[in-house]
Amino acid sequence: MTVIGQREYAVRPTRRPSEELQTGQPLDIVVQQFDEFIRSLQVDPHSPLFRLVTDGQPPLRQCLHPEACGKEINLPTYYARFHDLRKEYVRAYTLRAVATPRAPAPPPPPPDHPSTLLDMLNYLGITPYSGDNFYAAEVKDMASIIQRIISDGFRLELPETIDLVLETGICSKDDEIDGNCIVRARGLPWQSSDQDIAKFFRGLNVAKGGVALCLSPQGRRNGEALVRFVSQEHRDMALKRHKHHIGPRYIEVYRASGEDFLSVAGGATCEAAAFLSRGAQVIVRMRGLPYDATPQQVLDFFSSGDDPVQVLDGLEGVLFVRRADGRATGDAFVLFSKEEDAPKALSRHRKLIGARYIELFRSTTAEVQQVLNRSLESRASSAGTPSAASAPAEGLLPVTLVPQHVITSGTAKDCVRLRGLPYEAQVEHILTFLDEFAKNIVVQGVHMVYNAQGHPSGEAFIQMDSETSAFLCAQQKHHRYMTFGKKQRYIEVFQCSGDDMNLVLTGGVTPATSPKVLSPGTLLSPPPAPAPRLLAHHIAQQSLLARQHENLLLASLRPPMTLLPYPRPQTPAYPLPMLPQQMLPAKRTYERAFSQADAAPAKRPYTVPQMAPLSLPVFSYGASAPIFSYANTSPMLSYANALPTAVPTALPAGYGTALSAALPPSMTSPFSALSMFPTYPYYPGV
After folding, report:
1. Is 246 exposed, middle or buried (0-12, 13-18, 19+ CB in 10 A)?
2. Would you place residue 554 in the very low, low, confident or very high pLDDT band (cuts 50, 70, 90)?
3. Which residues form the RRM domain (predicted)?
């Protein structure tokens, strides 16, 4: 092998010019000069025998191709085929393709890991080139290694290739995916397509159909994508592009698993497989279609007007997305045969079908699979639970997406709850609505609430940095209006605690009769059991109230009497009824019930005093209200309903019969039993 030419080019950076490289040329000029230099040597660079040789993968995969793609420079096709000198060295010597005749020789470096050119030179016994120019010396050392490999009988026959076009492909949920070849890209612009993501990873080979755009529960792109590469080596190089940029946005790149990729890109429907197997190069997603739209209307939409474009396979190239019950969602996917059809089709973005404007987005096979999989899952869930469709909405348990931030807990009211949000509202709309209070939100403190079908419930929880911030936010933003497009909705804002958030966000509403979401305010807890002395206090109060109620009741049940002029006679029309002595409990005053006596006071019989009959005011039972009120008989303590169940809560046996017998005969018909009277706890001996 003979070296027939040598040339060095300096590329001048365009974003941050350096003083040392002011003499260099822009990248496109250097590419053109290099091509002219190759042709001046009477060598055809497009010949199959022409090869580029690099020291490792990064010079072309990580430097030249990404830089040229970012500057929209079209490189000649021979830059997509090269030989990696380190791999050729490993194939020739470490894998013992050819045994070296030199002995003794140092042991070869580990397979696939020659760290530098010096390792290869030392193994082959070649003296490194010494010179002032580092780059010229490195090129001459590479030439020496290539000459030795060829002289030892090995030929460079397996070039590396760089894929410049992303190929479409169909992935099934039954496929086996190597988990060491998957990455997750986060922070993508929402309008990014699979081609944009492939350009971000330009220089690395993405597998067929290897870009899967992730969708939110609402079916919209959430700025994430799963990318599958052809090998682990390319995956490792992709991880080094962490926080590189697409326009002004930096992209985060992390490892992912094969299960993650299959959950997004894996298809499970024959409908999707048949639709995607038509060999289309372009897939366009339509959104906002009329619910009664037909495939023919879609064909007319693209074939009419300026610059018409034909849909692949006519009516068979249109796929409508439907809900579990068969109703249209307003979305459809359309196939086109050539890449040149993409700009023509997308130029109809926001044009009308009838009275509705249609949104157009470039889509992917993985997005088609993901959307149809969700439709299939919803249909299966509906078929498995036929009563779910007729179940009331109140029975649905609220579920949420798993928040990235740990939700706070406790009774401190440092959170706010938003209710009445538009279903299309996103986090940015909430931040705009909160205005100056948005700066008081903790990191990842906005939590959207979704129902059991994964649809927005119109609620959100916001974690604030203090109770004061939450209080001021609730006070100033309650019943304020949120403008969303042409809609204007007033939003309810309540201050709440972290426990309230956790109960709703984790689906903690278990009783069937409980409300779907928690009401604003502090969580209600069962009242504590009253202390023994407070219990006695409560029993005595209830007993006294019952006696007072009975006396007033008896007075109100008297029949009408004739009102005489003043002075009134001392003899009433009816005397007070006399109750049997043995049916009355032992009398005890309110004060004595709480005296600190060592022994319980003895019971003493109660004798009805012989008193003169009293004259009572005349009331007509049918026309006048009773002189007692049920509202006055409510318990004086808040824990009245928490009394032990073992305590009796009814009058003694026979008490109602004796009271009814004491009433006048004319009053027994309307009140044949005392079951209509309120029942009060009664405790003999207190």
Report:
1. middle
2. low
3. 282-365
Question: 3-state DSSP call for residue 60?
Answer: helix
Quote helix, strand, coil % in the chain, to nearest 5.
Answer: 35, 15, 50
- Half-sphere CA count of 423, side-chain side, radius 13 A: 9
**pTM for the predicted model, two decimal places:** 0.54
Is residue 466 a contact partner of residue 495, using CB atoms and an 8 Å limit?
Answer: no
Contact 112, 106 (CB under 8 A): no
Quickly tell me which residue has 């609505």 as its tokens.
433
Q: What is the mean pLDDT of residues 413-441?
A: 88
When mean pLDDT is compared across 265-279, 420-434, 562-576, 636-650, the lowest value belongs to 636-650
* Preceding omega of 104 cis (within 30 degrees of 0): yes
628 residue type, one letter: F
Q: Are 241 and 200 in contact (CB under 8 A)?
A: yes
Can you tell me the distance from the alpha carbon of 536 to that of 573, in angstroms, rounded to the nearest whole number?
41
Query: Strands 480-484, 441-450: parallel, antiparallel or unpaired by DSSP?
Result: unpaired
- Cβ density class 410-448: b for 16+ within 10 Å, e for less: eeebbbbbbeebbeebbeebbeebbeebeebbbeebbbb
What's the mean pLDDT in 667-671? 44
Of the ranges 31-35, 395-399, 488-492, 546-550, the best mean pLDDT one: 31-35
Q: Is the dihedral of CA 321, 216, 397, 268 positive or negative?
A: positive
- For residues 466 and 414, the answer to whether their CB atoms sit within 8 Å is yes
Within 34-181, strands assigned E span 52-54, 81-84, 160-161
Cis, peptide link before residue 567, omega less than 30° from 0: yes
* Under 8 Å between Cβ of 481 and 432: no
Which residue is associated with the tokens 């906005």?
A: 446
Of 201, 191, 3, 164, nearest to 77 by C-alpha is 164
Q: How confident is the model at residue 13 (pLDDT cuts 50, 70, 90)?
A: confident
Distance between CA atoms of residues 227 and 239, nearest Å: 11
What is residue 448's predicted lDDT score, i.e. its pLDDT? 83
- Distance, CA of 566 to CA of 328 (rounded, Å): 86
What SS3 state is found at 223?
A: strand
